[in-house]
Amino acid sequence: MANFGGHAIPGSFFLLYGFWLTVKHILQHFWRTNQPKGRQMMPPLFKRIEYIEGGFLIFASFVGIMVEQFVVDGPHAHLYNTETNSWVKLMNWQHSTMYLFFGISGIALVVSTAFKLAPAGVDRLALSVALFVEGFLFYFHVHSRPPLDAHIHSLLLVAVFGGSASTMLEVFIRDNIVLELLRSCLFLLQGSWFYQIGFVLFPPSGPKWDLELHSNIMFVTMCFCWHLAVALLLVTCTSSVFWFTAKRFSGRGRDIEIGMRNTSSKTSSQKALLEASDEE
After folding, report:
1. Quick one: DSSP state of residue 115?
2. Whole-number Å distance between alpha carbons of 75 and 3
């Protein structure tokens, strides 16, 4: 990750995943609120969505591990060099470990969707652990770095550990739209903040940031709050758009169904009248 692209790639992943979760959960909530009481089974479409999400997590994690391990200056699956008696590219190994746990969460999602015997909430538990591992490794990732570098990474931990905590709550509180959208918001926040880290530490253009200046630390802290506000706004707007779109199409579908029923009843009535007139 020692360049702008190294932060933009995970940032793009988390932004995409946060948007995906927002759309998925608002559609699931819309479906749940429009079903009769006692009906819990999700339609096959939502099952396919879970398979796609799990497969995407597994694939993205595999690609991430391969990139971290086999880039030109990567460790190439070597952890310790016996000739120099030193560890080999531990930064890449830490990133690979983060990707590994997200891959495990993808496997847990697929298994919990495919098999009814899987404990309820195991997918959320695996994702919570993956986020915790990410934050845990990042916490020891930035020691002995310049103040601004260490601080901007420590702000990322707010989104990561916050996401881990909210996801863990979902293990025990299922189908809570507030917790689900909070998780989506924190993934969006994490994604946008990865981009911010890239722009601060590896600016594509313009002057470099002074990593020792205290006012830069103050600005970055305030900027994190702005990112949170934008993430909340994005989740609110996206949820509203998809909720009202689903409501509109659902209303049209009901109108068509009612119209078909009325047409069918009229046809039956006319057929009965014709039969009665023939008998007379």
Report:
1. -
2. 17
3-state secondary structure of 37: coil
CA 155/CA 187 separation, integer angstroms: 14
Cα–chain center distance at 14: 6
CA separation, residue 87 to residues 65, 79, 82, 97, 154 (Å): 18, 6, 9, 15, 25
Q: Which segments of 202-213 does DSSP mark as H helices, in order?
A: none
81 three-state secondary structure = strand
User: Which pLDDT tens digit goes with each residue over 206-248?
Assistant: 889 999 999 999 999 999 999 999 999 999 999 999 999 998 8
pTM of the model: 0.86
- Asked whether the beta carbons of 191 and 18 are under 8 A apart, the reply is yes
Q: CA triplet 203, 205, 210: central angle to 5 degrees?
A: 50
**How far apart (Å, rounded) are the C-alpha atoms in residues 23 and 181?**
9
User: Cα-flanking dihedrals φ and ψ of residue 213, to 5°?
Assistant: -75, 125
Residue reference for tokens 């009325």: 262
**Least confident residue range of 4-13, 31-40, 87-96, 246-255:** 246-255
H helices, E strands: number in the chain = 7, 2
Q: Tell me how crowded residue 278 is: count the other CB atoms within 10 A of its CB.
A: 7
Q: Which residues contact 139 (CB under 8 A, 6 or more apart)?
A: 154, 157
Task: Give residue 247's Cα distance to chain centre.
Answer: 24
Q: Cα separation of 180 and 170, whole Å?
A: 8
pLDDT digits (tens, 9 = 90+) for 198-207: 999 999 888 8
- Those residues with Cβ within 8 angstroms of residue 195's Cβ, 6 or more apart along the chain or in another chain: 7, 8, 11
Kind plus residue range of the DSSP H or E element containing 94: helix 90-114
